[in-house]
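Entry 14. Ran structure prediction on the chain below.
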Amino acid sequence: MNKIKTFFLAFVSSLSMTANAGGILTNTNQNIAFLRNPARDGAIGIDGVYYNPAGVVFLEDGFHLSLNIQNAHQTRTITSTNPYFALGAKNNGNETKVFKGKADAPIIPSIQAAYNKSNWSFQFNFAVTGGGGKCEFANGLGSFESVVGAIANQLAPLGSTGYDVDGYMQGRQYYYGFQLGAAYKVNKNLSVYGGLRMLYGSASYKANIDNIKVNTANGYVPFDKFIEGSITTVVSGIRQVQKAIGQYEQAGGTPRAERTAKLQQLQGVRGSLEQLTPYSEGVNLMSDQTGWGVAPVIGVDYKTGNFNFAAKYEFKTRMRMKNKSTVKEASIIDAVNKFKDGTDVPEDSPALLTLGAQWSVSPNVRVNLGYHHFFDKDGHLYEHQEKLLGGDTNEYLGGAEWDVTKRLQVSGGLQLTRYKMTDDYMNDMSFVVNSYSFGFGLGYKISDKVKVNVAYFQTNYTDYDRVTSVNPRVSDSFTRTNRVIGAGVDLKF
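Output, structure tokens:
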């Protein structure tokens, strides 16, 4: 009977959605140049305000500005197998069910700006560094529907033959990043950078679980009515057994052991049913979260011959998201306590090390390599979920850029992302899986001071298969899709 608690816990816990494109909370697609060629860590350009800030100082003197808009669409698919699904009113007796969520970020803006003067470069960056949209599961998730099925199965002795439930969930997350810093050209080959990044997080969650019904011989009955009727039936049975026991005792006899055992059994059933009563109302959650944090960023760039090498380190940003929620007091549903009004929820953004190299094969062709290491295990997440990870995230990047003409430039590249996921960390909504991405696009110089960029970026994900039980078969297969299109303009003044 207590599994219904797990049902609501799983549902509410899954509300913590992130739209990841790097480490657990980090989006690295902060400029259209990245979409065209993700290996930008060793390149020199205005997009370097984020990717290679030390290298920006090697741009010509003056004011440089990059304005970017991206559109992202993502699906999340979980194919789940559980024998309890066969009891569902909407499942047609099938034990395997596909659950899909859609996440859209219609507008993802970013701005990079730099003012170069002599040996100095003063820089500003604004971007959506985490999240970026809202995710909606219109038909629920397997993690909670399977538990409803288990409850219906457990209630079979009381006349239950199946279940029905309505669930809706929507989560929205935006982590806005603001970065200020300066680069200094030590000599014609070497430059260094120091700056501060501030993150401001804004999130909202809406969840409804209602219209829970139990199928009986008389059709579908509301869950609360079924529990109420079952308690009435059990209480009547208890009274009958107690009456029989009382008659034996009045006659001076000893009640039969089976009657005493029956009484204990019925009293246990009554207790279990009464424990279910608070959950019959379902969940109606509305919560807003806000928080902020600041962390240093340092970088270095070194030029030699036809090669350029660069490194950057973003320190961990301590984030505490404060709840403004309909949950005013501690709830008997543990997971709801994450959204308790006024509490602070840890959501650190992990530290990031990037390494990059660029080789100018000719005056018109450049080849790029990059490496990202996200220190995910060092970040503090809610209830220390980071401890469930098997390790940190690594990314490997490569690409090339070709100046076809004086005005037209084309580029393309690949990104390989490897997470250290575990079965314990994975859940229906916040999961990430290994992937490879490719991007391509072009830049066109309208004039010496105006350059337009357009690009397409797609991520292909592998499946993550988790088998919870072999007999009966209980398993999940997680995967995603993701595509991004973007356009921007680079200006010089």
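The chain has six helices and 18 strands. Will compare against last week's run tomorrow.
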